[in-house]
Design brief:
- Helices cover about 60% and strands about 0% of the residues.
- The protein has one domain (about 1-240).
- By secondary structure, the protein is mainly alpha-helical.
- The chain starts with a helix and ends in a 37-residue tail after the last helix.
- The chain is built from 12 helices and no strands.
- It has helices spanning about 1-25, 30-50, 55-70, 85-90, 95-100, 115-120, 125-135, 140-155, 165-175, 180-190, 195-200, 215-220.
- It comes from Pseudotamlana agarivorans.
Length: about 260
């Protein structure tokens, strides 16, 4: 875990400079927020490995707020490619944030010729994150609609180098059907060496956790399916749904995002 600690230390040394850049020029918020994202994500993983689950949830909470700003204020299209991003609020156990994320969409305009909802209806890549959003909101009609979109529009045009996304599709079906054993089988596939390596290209973090498998396991627990996966890449300690009594925001530039 030394490489992860060294990475955190390097990020932490730059933190005051990032904050000053944001305070001196609001236009730097988007640029600097990605740095804070990686700092807080690394801390979340480190605390998770150190069995400090409440602290890990706190850092996942901050990561999620940062990403929420990137979408809501800068119309960033994180949800076109970022299944891990949509899983971070789930790992925080902050229900208010989870519900806000379930409704979070990029809009037609800056950076987007079509809105996220329009892209989903066309079967584009945003459909994956959007399906997780529907599970977050317990909107099972939305899940059913998206499964039909994935089956009829997304899977037929899935590139050869993305065929592993069929596992995600099967997982969503199993989760909707409350099929615990099938969910566990598919999670095992996601943490298999080949699939994990392909889906987790961060050379540091991929040693410790597997996404979206960890987020999917937590999503299953939210649906009262207490899945068990025999892999250190899905640390079981964070799976129970146990919100913190209080969530803190340590950065002044995020204080407006208090709920």
């Amino acid at each position: 875990m030394d490489d992860l600690i060294d990475r955190i230390k390097r990020f932490d040394k730059r933190k005051s400079k990032w904050i000053n850049n944001i305070l001196n020029d609001k236009n730097n918020t988007l640029k600097m927020s990605s740095n804070f994202h990686f700092l807080e994500l690394n801390l979340a993983i480190y605390k998770l490995l150190d069995k400090k689950i409440n602290e890990s949830k706190q850092h996942f909470y901050i990561v999620s707020i940062i990403d929420k700003i990137r979408v809501s204020e800068f119309n960033n299209r994180l949800f076109d490619f970022g299944l891990p991003y949509v899983c971070f609020p789930i790992l925080s156990d902050n229900e208010n944030l989870i519900q806000q994320y379930s409704k979070l969409r990029y809009q037609k305009g800056k950076n987007a010729e079509l809105s996220m909802d329009e892209m989903v209806l066309q079967g584009e890549s945003a459909v994956w994150c959007n399906t997780v959003q529907f599970f977050m909101a317990n909107d099972f009609k939305g899940v059913e609609r998206n499964l039909n979109i994935i089956e009829t529009l997304t899977l037929p045009k899935l590139p050869k180098n993305q065929q592993e996304f069929k596992i995600d599709y099967e997982f969503y079906k199993a989760l909707l059907n409350k099929d615990k054993s099938k969910c566990e089988e598919l999670l095992e596939q996601l943490v298999s060496t080949k699939i994990h390596k392909k889906r987790n290209d961060n050379a540091v973090l991929n040693k410790y956790v597997s996404q979206p498998a960890l987020g999917y396991a937590k999503l299953a627990w939210r649906q009262s399916l207490e899945v068990e996966v025999n892999s250190p890449l899905i640390p079981k300690e964070i799976l129970p749904i146990e919100p913190l009594d209080n969530y803190e925001i340590p950065y002044d530039f995020l204080k407006d995002e208090l709920f």
